[in-house]
Amino acid sequence: MMDLLGACHTLLFPVQMLYHVIRASLTSLLPSRRKDLAKEVVLITGGGRGIGRHLAKEFAKQGAKKVILWGRTEKSLKETAEEITLSGAECHYFVCDVANREEVYKQAKVVREKVGDVSILVNNAAVVHGKSLMDSDDDALLKSQHINTMGQFWTTKAFLPRMLELQHGHVVCINSILSKSPIPGAIDYCTSKASSLAFMESLTLGLLDCPGVGCTTVLPFHTNTEMFQGMRVRFPQLFPPLKPEVVAQRTVDAVRADKAFLYLPWTMHALVILKREDMSCTGCEKNLESFGVDEGADRNPDVKGAPT
């Protein structure tokens, strides 16, 4: 019976892939109504560097009224804010550790008083320590969960009520394809991102009956940022690391199109399908290897929890 089911899944795989190819092609060809950002106040956690920095620049480029940066390092926040201000957009920054619940609530109040109501919240802040479970420090493991997962609870609780009241808002999560198909050597990151994905799936469903408020979850492949310096890809010509500016541009486009889930690149749909077909550990590892993801994170001395 299991062999028969396996054969059926194997036969269905090319059909599913054809569906995603056709869907991606039609989506790129058909015009869609895009949200105007001219009145939007965007807050980005982890906004001083990496994908967060590029998100801030892209939202400003596409016409956001105000951009607000949150992060733990004032130097990088200030540099990014100055760059965006020079481009002609209004940008503010606040030092805030999203892992600290009370600090999040306090700074959220400051933002409302000094800048105004946040209409687009981008939960981007994340860390990775790149070690196996037995080599991981307990405090480092807790740090990953507090920033990557619990931080979303605090920021969303801080800003979502006002969005619901105004019937206008959007919650964005920069997640990872590793939330769907984890790899060894980054157990803290994979676990926290899987929890983050469950949070967003539940939130997205919960907001379906809330007019004017939506969600977008972005699941990118390995992105070329400081956080994943040294991570090896088995077939770099076939699966090159994503550029953070591309992730940012596609994310803003997805928000403006009210797209709930975005896989980058679109071929990552295949990885999710393969994962669904074979839930054994060996099968999962083989699926990842077939997509060129190696387990080099735990052997990379440069991965030390740098935030995005």
UniProtKB/TrEMBL annotation:
<keyword id="KW-1133">Transmembrane helix</keyword>
<keyword id="KW-0812">Transmembrane</keyword>
<comment type="function">
    <text>Catalyzes the reduction of all-trans-retinal to all-trans-retinol in the presence of NADPH.</text>
</comment>
<keyword id="KW-0472">Membrane</keyword>
<keyword id="KW-0560">Oxidoreductase</keyword>
<comment type="similarity">
    <text>Belongs to the short-chain dehydrogenases/reductases (SDR) family.</text>
</comment>
<dbReference type="GO" id="GO:0016020">
    <property type="term" value="C:membrane"/>
</dbReference>
<keyword id="KW-0443">Lipid metabolism</keyword>
<protein>
    <recommendedName>
        <fullName>Short-chain dehydrogenase/reductase 3</fullName>
        <ecNumber>1.1.1.300</ecNumber>
    </recommendedName>
</protein>
<dbReference type="GO" id="GO:0005811">
    <property type="term" value="C:lipid droplet"/>
</dbReference>
<dbReference type="Pfam" id="PF00106">
    <property type="entry name" value="adh_short"/>
</dbReference>
<dbReference type="InterPro" id="IPR036291">
    <property type="entry name" value="NAD(P)-bd_dom_sf"/>
</dbReference>
<dbReference type="GO" id="GO:0004745">
    <property type="term" value="F:all-trans-retinol dehydrogenase (NAD+) activity"/>
</dbReference>
<dbReference type="GO" id="GO:0052650">
    <property type="term" value="F:all-trans-retinol dehydrogenase (NADP+) activity"/>
</dbReference>
<dbReference type="InterPro" id="IPR057326">
    <property type="entry name" value="KR_dom"/>
</dbReference>
<keyword id="KW-0521">NADP</keyword>
<feature type="domain" description="Ketoreductase">
    <location>
        <begin position="40"/>
        <end position="231"/>
    </location>
</feature>
<dbReference type="InterPro" id="IPR002347">
    <property type="entry name" value="SDR_fam"/>
</dbReference>
<dbReference type="GO" id="GO:0048385">
    <property type="term" value="P:regulation of retinoic acid receptor signaling pathway"/>
</dbReference>
